C-alpha cells in the first residue's frame, strides 16, 4: 500500500511539473503579445508554480524513504519543507509583482493584441483549474501535504488569473490604462495572503501540531468504546507528520489483569483507531490501576 501511495503521489508530482511548464509557456506568450503588466504578474506566478512543483516532487520522493537509524520515525516531514519553500516563493513573487506594478503606474500603456492574449491566458487558467481539482482530491486521499499545498496554490493562481482576465479586458474596452498595474498590485496582494496562509499551515506541521479538535474527539470516543475491561486512558497526545498521525496515551487496567488480557485490549483499540485514521502510528503504555488519574478518557 505504501509503495502504491508513493508511486501515485510521485506520478501526480511529475504531472504538476509538466502542467506548470505548459501553463507558464502559455502565460508568457499572452504577456509578450499584450505587454500587460497584469499578465506579466500572472506569468511570474507560474514561474513559482514550476519551482514549487519541482520541490514537491523532490520532497515526495524523499519522504517515501523508509525509516533508518538516523530517522527512526521515517522521512514524512520532508513534504512540509516543500510546502514552506512554496509559501516563501509565493511571497517573493508577490514582492516582484508589486515592484513592476509600481513602475507601470508611472508609465501605463494600452495592451496590444488583447483578444488573442486573453484567449491564450484563458486556456492556461482552464488547464490550471482542471489540474488543481484533481490534485486537491488525490492529495487529500493520499494525505500528502506537498500535493495539497500545490493544489491550493494553483487554485489561488486560477482566482487571480480570472480577475486579471476580466481586468485586462476592461482596460482594452475602456482605455483606462491605470487599471492594468492596479490589477497587478491586487494580484500580488492575493498571492501574499495565499503564501502567508500556506507558511502558517506548513510550519504548524513542522512544529508537531495536534490533530484538530473534531478528530481528537473521535479518537477519544473510539478509545472509550474499544477499551472494555480497562479503567481509563489518560495523557493522550497526537501529532501529524506528513501522511502519518502519531498517537500515544496511557491505558490504566486492573492490577490483577494478565499481560495477554491487557494486550488484547490494546489490539482492539489500535484496530478501531486505524479503521478511523489512515496511517496511524499508535503507542499505548499500560499501567496498573494505582496509576489512575481519574481524568482523561473513562472507559464505557
UniProtKB/TrEMBL annotation:
What membrane topology is annotated for this entry?
A: Multi-pass membrane protein
One biological process GO term for this chain? intracellular zinc ion homeostasis
This protein's UniProt keywords: Cell membrane, Membrane, Transmembrane, Transmembrane helix, Transport
Matching InterPro entries: Cation_efflux, Cation_efflux_CTD, Cation_efflux_CTD_sf, Cation_efflux_TM, Cation_efflux_TMD_sf, CDF_Transporter
- Keyword Mitochondrion on this protein? no
Q: Which residues form the Cation efflux protein cytoplasmic domain?
A: 212-289
Gene Ontology molecular-function annotations: cadmium ion transmembrane transporter activity; ferrous iron transmembrane transporter activity; zinc efflux antiporter activity
Q: Does the keyword Membrane apply?
A: yes
Compartments, record wording:
Cell membrane
Gene3D superfamilies with a match to the protein in the record:
Cation efflux protein transmembrane domain, Cation efflux protein, cytoplasmic domain
What range(s) does the Cation efflux protein transmembrane domain occupy?
Answer: 16-207
Question: Any transmembrane segments, and where?
Answer: 12-31, 37-60, 80-102, 114-134, 154-176
Taxonomically, which superkingdom? Bacteria
Q: Which GO terms describe its cellular component?
A: plasma membrane
The record's similarity note reads: Belongs to the cation diffusion facilitator (CDF) transporter (TC 2.A.4) family.
The identity of this protein, by name, is: Protein p34
Look up and give the organism this protein is from. Answer: Neoroseomonas eburnea
